[in-house]
Structure formats: structure tokens, C-alpha cells
């Protein structure tokens, strides 16, 4: 089982808070590099309380690449319909060279309507565009000349520059839980980035099986490995005991869950049910989600509890856990939790 670190948190809205947040990200990433974690994931988020400091994973990954030695730097996720695939290839080739081949990108279709003020015409067909441009990204990374329309309206063939350090770009497809996306990722022969939260163990087992079958049946793709990697995000804090971990993580995690529901309610593409919740209903929903998540799917607890949960995820078919650490704990608690998590991994 591979263990990575993922940032995705809700942040202070002040400029001073943002500056301190970047310092924390750097400190946690350096520690994860030293402790032997596989990768660090940073997301793409826009205009929301959740994830204010993450508008561009390529930019932040470039900084992290130069501050580390071995840990992989990955986008988790990049909203591909918001970008021209040429720009994605260019930006990540820079990071690939800076890191000497340690990059990876998980492609998301996007879901929040407000994000698409950056590309309003792409919102309706975002899923189809993301999967189409994923293929273009593979071709551009391999050095193929691809035709696009220039400023004079002419079709011209261009080759992305600079050339990347790695011959192939490791790609993931991000899923919020749709079985169709799991199957589509297998058909495209990308790795897949999902989450444990919001689904049962049985539901997740079925989706992993569906992904594996589609991947095996799909034709070979340039740079794709013979077997895809299943990466699952899980809120993580390895404490000294179950009681200590839940006491420390409980308040921040509940606050994070509330902020996430509020963001969902602001999405014009949502069904409106979240927006109709009263404060009391929102509190009840948050408490229920918290208790359910503690029972299965999180890595919040003692080292022994986290060890058992990791073994269960491995049995399920998970290859890598992206440990979501910045959901409200202080940086000292996060660093101490990573030390304990690294220790238990060595004994597995």
C-alpha cells in the first residue's frame, strides 16, 4: 500500500492566513518527503471557502518540486475543461523538468458552476471535453504535433515545448463516485482518484471491480501501465489513541463537512436539496456523516486502528491512500500524525 499526502482544506480568508497556509504546506510536504510518502497532491479550486489557496496545482507543484528530493508532485485534481490542453502540457512539462520526472496529473471534469466563469462555454459539455482533451494531452506529452486553430483562423500543427523530462505523463481520472466515471477511467486506461467518504465498502468494492474489468478490456494507450492504480482519498489523523484522535479531529472535521455542504448548496448545477437545509438539519447531517465516516473509510484513530483500516482498503483493491490532512488540524498535529503513520507503515 502506497501512502501519499493530499491538501484540499478550507482556509482563512485573510491574506496573512493564506501566506501562513503556504508555509504549512511547504513544511508538511518536506516532512512527507523525509518520511517516505509517495506523493503530495494539490487541487484546483476557485472562488470558494473550501480550498482558497489552490487555484493552480502546477504553480504550487513547481514550488514543492524545488523544495523536495524524492516525493512525487501531483495535481489532485486539474479541471481540464477550464484549460487549453497545450497549456496544461507546457505547464506540467516545466514541473516535470524541475522535479526530474516526479509529476502526475489527475483530470477532473469539473462540477461547480462558479468555476466555469473561467470558461463558461465549457460547462455543459465538460465531461465529453475532459475525456477528449485527455487524449490530446497524452499526444502532446509524447511530442506529437497536433493541429489547432491559430489567431488568423488557420489550422496549424504545433508541438508543445518545453519537452518533458519523462516520456509519459502519469494520468489519473478523478471521480466523485459515479460508477460510469470509474468505468470510463478504465476504458481510457488512466489510473483513478476517488474517495472513501460518501459510500459504503460494498459500493466501493463494486466500483473498483468495474474499473478493473474495463481497464483490462481496453486497448493499450501511450504511456499507460498494464494495470491501473486505484488511489483513494481519506481524511487522516493518526493519534496516540482512538479517543485522542477523535477528540482532536472531531471539531475540525465537522466544520469542514459543514463548509463542503455550503459549497454544494451554492452550485447552480446541484439539485437544490442542500440549499434548503436549516441550520439544525445541517448540524444533524454533519453529525451523521462524521459518525458514519469514523466507522468506515477514514484514517482517524490510533496507529492500530489506522493499520487495520489500511489493511481493509488494501483488501478492497486500493493501491494508494491519499491522506487528506488539512481539514482544520494545526500544523504541529498534522506533522505528529504523519510521523506516527510513517512508523506504522514500516511495520506492515
Automatic annotation (TrEMBL):
Residues 5-319 form the Luciferase-like domain. Pfam families: Bac_luciferase (PF00296). One of its GO terms (molecular function) is oxidoreductase activity, acting on paired donors, with incorporation or reduction of molecular oxygen. Signal peptide: none annotated. It comes from the Bacteria. One of its GO terms (cellular component) is cytosol. InterPro entries: Bact_Lucif_Oxidored (IPR050766), Biosynth_lucif-like_mOase_dom (IPR024011), Luciferase-like_dom (IPR011251), Luciferase-like_sf (IPR036661). Keywords: Monooxygenase, Oxidoreductase. This is Natural product biosynthesis luciferase-like monooxygenase domain-containing protein. It comes from Nonomuraea solani.
